[in-house]
């Protein structure tokens, strides 16, 4: 961004306050240059502060030309809370919950939520404002699942504002209940596509692909695996995972490893290696562009890395693995979610045919004919 600005900190009762120091345009007749120092939030990381600063600068640039930013802010009422106050609270709760991956919510807040909702006082929010946001995102070509992810972040922030007694109730609750239905994917990777991927993948990325196909773990959890989580016991390798930080996105605490998973996960330099197994990447967002380029080179369309988790579940289903076992290995806490990851195939079709043929046999044994 071609704008000179600084982020300054001040110690206050609420914690370490982060302010944006932004010189504005020069005043006429040689007067002193105007500046603004809006509050970004409290106890932020450098990434959070920078993300909020960029969004604030964009907000100032898009302000009406009829008056300076400070007077426009004052027209909302002195002390009126905005989404920015809720975002500061949101980051504090994320830090308190020891969340690791901030990249996605940072991008959602800076690129979408703040530019649209940032100038409105929280008390002015209406269902119509929420509907206008969804309509705008649809016009820009955003997918339904993308809009839902963005809305979930907004909904969490607004609910925190309600819990903090800044709002009497969530004014966007009606919109939340009527969001477009989520589009569930049923894409799995074929053996032919895997062969093509193996030819184009960087060796580290291929190890990650193999690990995903044989453990079913999400990319964020795979990338967080520490060498110390890997153990060799009498019956083979095990991955000892910490308890999931989310009650929705769970994971098994003990995951058995087959031979291919062991080769992909165990440190290349021996069991004494320390740190993350896939230290090459910081988080799930770090592999997004590499994955896209690799699929493009391999001539594979519409394949998400998360589809490998669907492939893991579907292969277990076709191998005749019980639903309860599949649910445990996937770490699903929501009832029925495992079924959304199991997409059938030849093995599953054989089981279905065998089931109805049992009825055929019972009819014959009972000497009942058409």
Strand content: 5-15%
Helix count equals: 15
Poorly predicted runs are 26-34, 64-78
> How many β-strand runs?
7
What series of H and E elements makes up the topology?
A: EEEEHHHHHHHHHHEEEHHHHH
Main β-sheet: number of strands, strand sense, barrel status?
4 strands, antiparallel
Q: What is the residue-mean pLDDT, rounded to a whole number?
A: 83
Indicate the CATH topology of the largest domain: DNA polymerase, domain 1
Quickly give the structural class. Answer: alpha+beta
Can you identify the CATH class of the largest domain?
A: Mainly Alpha
- Write down the domain tally: 2
CATH superfamily of the largest domain, called what?
Answer: Tyrosine recombinase, N-terminal domain
Distance between the termini: 78 Å
Structure description:
- The chain has 370 residues and is of the alpha+beta class.
- It has helices spanning 46-61, 69-74, 83-96, 103-117, 127-139, 144-163, 173-177, 191-200, 203-215, 219-223, 259-265, 288-298, 307-318, 323-330, 346-365, and strands spanning 6-12, 15-23, 35-36, 39-42, 230-233, 236-240, 254-256.
- It has 2 domains: 6-177, Tyrosine recombinase, N-terminal domain (DNA polymerase, domain 1, Orthogonal Bundle); 191-350, hpI Integrase, Chain A.
- The chain is built from 15 helices and 7 strands.
- The strands form 2 sheets. Strands 1, 2, 3 and 4 form a 4-stranded antiparallel beta sheet that branches.
Summarize the entry for a quick read:
This protein has 2 domains: 6-177, Orthogonal Bundle (DNA polymerase, domain 1), CATH 1.10.150.130; 191-350, Intergrase catalytic core (hpI Integrase, Chain A, Orthogonal Bundle). The protein is 47% helix and 9% strand.
